[in-house]
Amino acid sequence: MTAVDQTPATHQVTAKIDKTYLEDKLLGRWKDLRLIARGFARDPRIIRDPSLGMDEHRERVLEQLKILVSEAQVLRAFPERLGGSDDSGGGIAGFEELLAADPSLQIKAGVQWGLFCAAIHHLSTPEQQDRLLGAAMRLEVPGAFAMTEIGHGSDVASIATTATFNEDSGDFTLHTPFRAAWKDYLGNAALHGQAAVVFAQLITKGVNHGVHAFYVPIREQNEDGSTGALLQGVSSEDDGLKGGLNGIDNGRLAFDNVRVPRENLLARYGEVSADGTYSSPIESPGRRFFTMLGSLVQGRVSLDGAAGVASKIALTTAITYGNQRRQFNGASDTEETVLMDYQTHQRRLLPLLAEVYAGHFAHDRLLDLFHAVFSEEGMDTPESREDLETLAATLKPVSTWRALHALQTAREACGGAGFMTENRLVQLRQDMDIYVTFEGDNTVLLQLVGKRLLTDYAKQFKGITGMNMARFVIDRAADTVLYRTPLNRAVQSIADTGRRARSANELRDEETQRELLTDRVETMVEKVAAALRPAAKMSQADGAALFNEHQSELIEAAKAHADLVQWEAFTKALRDIEDPGTHSVLVALRDLYALSRIEANLAWYLINGRLSTQRAETVTSYINRLLTRLRPHAQDLIEAFGLDDELVRATIATGVEQKRQDEAREYYRKQRASGDAPISEKTLAKAKRATKR
Amino acid sequence: MTAVDQTPATHQVTAKIDKTYLEDKLLGRWKDLRLIARGFARDPRIIRDPSLGMDEHRERVLEQLKILVSEAQVLRAFPERLGGSDDSGGGIAGFEELLAADPSLQIKAGVQWGLFCAAIHHLSTPEQQDRLLGAAMRLEVPGAFAMTEIGHGSDVASIATTATFNEDSGDFTLHTPFRAAWKDYLGNAALHGQAAVVFAQLITKGVNHGVHAFYVPIREQNEDGSTGALLQGVSSEDDGLKGGLNGIDNGRLAFDNVRVPRENLLARYGEVSADGTYSSPIESPGRRFFTMLGSLVQGRVSLDGAAGVASKIALTTAITYGNQRRQFNGASDTEETVLMDYQTHQRRLLPLLAEVYAGHFAHDRLLDLFHAVFSEEGMDTPESREDLETLAATLKPVSTWRALHALQTAREACGGAGFMTENRLVQLRQDMDIYVTFEGDNTVLLQLVGKRLLTDYAKQFKGITGMNMARFVIDRAADTVLYRTPLNRAVQSIADTGRRARSANELRDEETQRELLTDRVETMVEKVAAALRPAAKMSQADGAALFNEHQSELIEAAKAHADLVQWEAFTKALRDIEDPGTHSVLVALRDLYALSRIEANLAWYLINGRLSTQRAETVTSYINRLLTRLRPHAQDLIEAFGLDDELVRATIATGVEQKRQDEAREYYRKQRASGDAPISEKTLAKAKRATKR
């Protein structure tokens, strides 16, 4: 990117961002690992070659994975005794940055280390880890994560593949009973996988103990280590071309009465003895299932971060271009207007920039919590896990949808140039598309969050104070008062509208913003809870119907919760910004985030009496003022992301547009100076009319 | 598509759509031509092969164009004396349907016949038509439409290419003065084009007469008719891979002092005599420019229709799949719930279905108007052209954005399956992406509409009644009272809120819906007009700044206008539906359209006192009731589009999912009946607890 060459005089610049300082803050806790990963993401061996067709792209990505493993970039999260660093947060931080190289590379790495290896790591006994994990970590065994079935996506509990224990032979029979039970969309399944972690209903002695994971070889290993033919009883199909991520060999797997040794049931949360007796350290089958799945939360955590990187690339491209490109000359006869000076352009890009910052800081909190649970002494409790899962389920949907929105908005803001592959926005959007439905469909995840909000709401009545999710953040905060989150307060809030409407008289006041955002979550949850109360006394079908009638509201409540969590994270981050200029600009950006969220839900605030119509009308005009105030800082705000030309890889964001504009303006300037410029017919006609008078 | 196999008993089915009847109504005025075009869109020679790389795809599309011309599908709009049928509307109707075959094919055909040939057709003298049009129509000369420059997209008036008349040699010198003046994104420019219609500033005798079109050979024609080397002075670059439409060879062109004969200035609206004297039948350079550009409005008209086809394919796929796919078993222990029965699924798809119907009927009106202007005696007046351009500029942005939204929503509603190329949604979305910025950037078009609304508003004060745009529709309507459109009424509307708030007590009432939608446009335009009034007395720069401050509002007003136009078209169409069951369902769908638009802008209605908070709260619950009422008709509503499996070409919409679901349910049914089903640990634990008590 090249800097803007001028700032219009009409903009008041009252503060200045210290870019180096802010970039350092944004790199955050795992700065060094992020910088190393960015080095890889610039490496010509690692970056995407957009000209490759599917087959070549798949082979290239496999080779890239080998480079990653040989340079030890992907093993940090694993146990030290097996060559890792027991550094869960650092592992994810580095992984996220790989998106800038090629999302196919990132997700193929995610399949191998974040799913296949992580499942062995988290669901195995130490003996099994020692036996199975090393070769998988070293990519000697490329593996698939065989959970999703054609007939069951987000509803993992209902998968139909069975693993039935045979008491006579002492092993399991793994079986796909019908077409809908084929495993589908699995990376490494079409071509490269030699083994798979297969999820199946564990049946022994006539009892189904629910979904468990099995380590299952699926293809032969050739003498040179490469992948050979499918093993007996295993079938595979290629998913073929996809909307994006075509560097990954996604495919389907089915098992026709395949025998699996008893020792290959990953047994940390449930094992079967030689005589077929099932035992588990977790008695409740429901809690056991969620614990197993929960140990795989890192997929959602890392997608949240990766989506943030994609959004940053999008805005870096569009804002850099928007600061150079000129179009239409409304304000002057000779000077065309820079795109970023148009209100519509600011409206499209700057609230999104505020969202991306909010999402960044929220992701930092998520990563802290993730690291604590999996790598800090004494932090792995059922409660902290539940908090982590809820926070991941809150943030992953909003950040992945935002990435698509940011990429599309950026592409449109760059016009036809945005559609060219050389400017990367379209290709990145194609790859990111699947992020909104994989690792948990976004809508299903938000419903889980909504249910959690309802549960916490119900707990209030049983004397349990506060909301679990907030606990971790409170623990780490110096000033716990700042961390009141929804449902901390008594239930009278609906009755309390008078005070709130009055307190909303200063929208730029932090406490007012918190009130408005918090109140919305609380009130929405209370309303849904009240509406659902009769369900307890209903038949299953009627209860489900009642729940269905309030499904949209519950999802809206979860989205409102996501707004609040991100606002709190942004606000917390502001307390660590000591540079006054940077602080001042970021406060305005945080205000823009808050006001944009309030504007998006203005009808709710009006209907529920939280804002008067007079006050509501000022929301939009206040946003417009913030846009004017932030516009001169837009370039600094994106440059602080630290994504240089080699990471962004969009030709139009490298300064070529500025060069073209300068050349054109110089041409016209010289023409005017020479007196050779043709006179326009319009001007001539005007002059003639003037002469006649 | 296969029909739904059961309709849940909970849905009241009070009316039934006559699908054949409705399909016939939707095919409309050019039914026969649409059916012929759909035949082509099913032809294996014409449909897209998704496995092809860019180079093969480009060659295949060129061959497909030759098939189209040999079977005379693309020449209807042209003069009879040259082999056409003088049938503008029919030409567009057939063209739109080609989208189902492959958008690359459609747009490459659009480049050849809708832009290159159409420019010759509409901007030439009869002599020039006779000389140049035939070979172009027959594709003997593939051509590019060289208007857009790298440095100027939607601002065509500012392009920098010059065509300077040489009085001594009697020809023009066509020249690209700097890099930003290269023509870019032109179909046929990279490979296949042998000529181009080039837009350039016409300069003669030191005067710039503004943008004019020139017919310019750019490549040699080989003996076999194929395209040869670039001609002297012409440079070309390949745009390479794009986000979609990779079957088209988009590229760039530049001209280094290329000589163009005087006869190749397309001279209908402006010519230069042998001595260099410029003359034009249109005196005002501004009006001349807009007349020339306006004659090319058919691009926008056809994109509006093509976008509608894409949206229909999207919804046909998602709703068919949503009626077969089951997920989660909230309501029953053994039966999973069909996706379309979930409120969130209905919320995602059914309001969009209502929008697509509204867009369909609005497009029918647009096509009527287009046909009248270009093919009906006495209808080609400056006013009707202006109406047509405004209506096209109103509808093209909303329908193209809607197509992207529909394709993305459908893709997400189909989960991972939606991401597979074999289900087509992703590929179609990639191709449609550029529709939102080409043939006029959507935001720029809406701004034009906004300015038109302001102009018409201003005219009211000068005694000109009514809004021009409405005139054509009124002329064709039996009941003109139904066609009151914005700005027909007196200015007191803002003061008139009391009556309006009261009249809103029945949201399902047609007149109330009209009031609410009309009032919004009027009031918004009035507000912007009032805010801009001081600009008249300001300097150019200050006036531009004031306008910029209200740019977003103006665009919002244009969107509100689009809502109203589509609602009026839907409501008008209802009067032609005689079958009572079909009528009843479509009325509910129209109501859903109206209520969805009102819900989307609820804050506006509240702030402006048009709805009370009590009434506003009922909007959402009324929408939810409409969803329940319409849900049983969703499959019929999409099947009436008449898009069969061969046109939709999405594997998941062919009934494979129903087959998989049936097989799985039959498996479990048999297992339960046999008594062999393993008992679940959960059930067992429950039973144990019961025994203990």
From TrEMBL, chains A, B:
Cofactor: FAD
Residues annotated as signal peptide: none
Residue ranges of coiled coil: 500-527
Domain Acyl-CoA oxidase C-alpha1 residues, every copy: 294-454
Domain of life: Bacteria
Keywords associated with the record: Coiled coil, FAD, Flavoprotein, Oxidoreductase
Family: Belongs to the acyl-CoA oxidase family.
Name of the featured protein: Acyl-CoA dehydrogenase
